[in-house]
Amino acid sequence: MSELIEVLTKDGSYSLRSVFFQENFHSLLGALEETKLKFTAPSDLQRFYGKSINVLDICFGLGYNSASLLNELINQKSYLNLYALEIDKKPLEYSLSNKSFLKLWAPKVKKIFESVYQKDYFEDNFFKCSLLWGDAREKINIIPSSIKFDLIYLDGFSPQKCPQLWTIEFLSKVKERLNSQGYLITYSSSAAVRNTLRNLGLEIFTIKPSSNNRTFWSQGTIAISKFDKNKLKPNINFEKLSLMEEEHLLTKASVPYRDQDLNSSKEDIINKRLNEQFFSNLVSTKKWREKWGMTKSSFKS
Ligand SMILES: C[S@@+](CC[C@H](N)C(=O)[O-])C[C@H]1O[C@@H](n2cnc3c(N)ncnc32)[C@H](O)[C@@H]1O
User: Fold this and answer.
1) Other CB atoms closer than 10 Å to residue 5's CB: what's the count?
2) Fold classified for 4-298
3) Average pLDDT over the chain, rounded to whole?
4) For the chain, which residues make up each domain, given as ranges?
5) Residues lining ligand 1, CB < 6 A?
6) pTM tops 0.90, yes or no
């Protein structure tokens, strides 16, 4: 599965490209920038200053999202219980051999990464980290059901390349693990993913594009079970969906990915969806794109 090619992104940070999935792990604009903008900043980590936090990182990869989280939590003396899911050990092996990647973080991050690579586990007075290797669709079941997460990062390859991790059935399992005020965060703004999350009863928000990059209309999605306006302060990184984004959810692009027994192949999931789209009465996504003057380059989900 894992033929990987090194990629130097525009912010000077390294990433990988998967030959098997035919996709890069990160945006070419910057692996580090992407992690900070789409995962770390919207997480509102200050809420956990000096407190404990449960986090699930789905698709650990090189470990950018977890490393950035650990770095912040080291500085603010939080207690962390981290679970990570990943099918392939090679990306972490690569991170551990890349000095430039390791230099981005506090030395403790390297210690934690070495330990989860060798023993699948790390523990000290502040942090407990478990890496569950294998298909996330199975391994998520190993996490004790009593653990509810304050943050879940979902960073799989795009729905078209790896639909297994964006289906109603998998997202429903993920949702079960989210605590009521927890954030499920993903870079994806796919209508199918957003619609599925909403139909599972979550309130969804769009991650705003950064002020220096307006090419994209959204940087991703945050889903929250019970958005309590009194408890959760307005976050400068996310907001309600715009009219354009709401209308996106009324198009054929919103037809969900399905994987009834959580063991279908990519091809089966894609073909089933194409068939459902063909027979659907929803408006065509092309019409929506035309209405909103959307070019292919401004459209990334
Ligand atoms: C976009 S990359 C993740 C990037 C990562 N978050 C990082 O910071 O480097 C997607 C990852 O999903 C993993 N993956 C693909 N299919 C998977 C599956 N069924 N279960 C678990 N991990 C999977 C790939 O091995 C790859 O590392």
Assistant:
1) 10
2) Rossmann fold (3.40.50)
3) 93
4) 4-298
5) 25, 59, 61-65, 85-88, 91, 135-137, 155-157, 162, 164-165
6) yes
